[in-house]
Amino acid sequence: MELSEAVPASAMGAENPDAAVTHLPGPAILVALVPDEDPSLRPTVRVHSPDERVVPYEVMCWFMEQVADQVKRCRIAFEQGEPEAVE
Question: How far is CA 63 from its chain centroid?
Answer without folding.
Answer: 8
